Amino acid sequence: MSYADNLSIQERRSHFRNVASVAAKDGVINNEERAVLAFVAQKWKLTDEDLRDVTEHPNAIEMALPNDRLACFQQLYDLVEIMIVDGMVRIKERELCTSLAVNLGFTPDAVDTIIQAILKGNLSSRDEKDIQADLIRKLL
Questions:
Q1: What is the CATH number of the domain that holds 127?
Q2: How far is it between the farthest Cα atoms of the chain?
Q3: What's the pLDDT tens digit per position in 75-131?
Q4: Which of 20, 79, 105, 118 lies at a 20 to 30 A Cα distance from 135?
Q5: How far apart are CA 122 and CA 120, in angstroms?
């Protein structure tokens, strides 16, 4: 059972909308971002119909913040991951990511902490679960 199982469909759709918004903030969703979006959709157990609804009508999806702190962390992690996947952190993407981090109950510094942990972990070929475990200890 994953943390996604404990969230409502609205919370999962809201999460995906947020991640897709960061990906699209620069006006282009590239192949790397598409791959992360597909992974996020699968991880959060969204159907093709959910994806179609979210991508075709993003403004119709209301922001639904999970009550679970770990789910908020997972959402922030996904937001940062989509922001840095193309190797460039654009100002508009970072501003949106930081704003969403604050809405999720984190400080703006949490975004920097996650960026650094992901980049450092990638350089040393660390498993994503190990990176997240270290971040959870620091941020939660």
A1: 1.10.3680
A2: 41
A3: 999 999 999 998 888 999 999 999 999 999 999 999 999 999 999 998 899 999 999
A4: 20
A5: 5
Domain that holds residue 74: 3-139
Look at residues 10, 81, 76 and name the one whose alpha carbon lies nearest to residue 46. Answer: 10
Task: State how many domains the chain has.
Answer: 1
Show Cβ contacts of residue 126 under 8 Å, excluding neighbours closer than 6 positions. 120
C-alpha 21: how far from its chain's center?
Answer: 10
Residue 101's identity, in one-letter code, is A
Rounded CA-CA distance 73/132 in Å is 9
- pTM here is 0.91
Single-letter amino acid code for the residue at 133: A
Percent of the chain residues topping a pLDDT of 70: 99
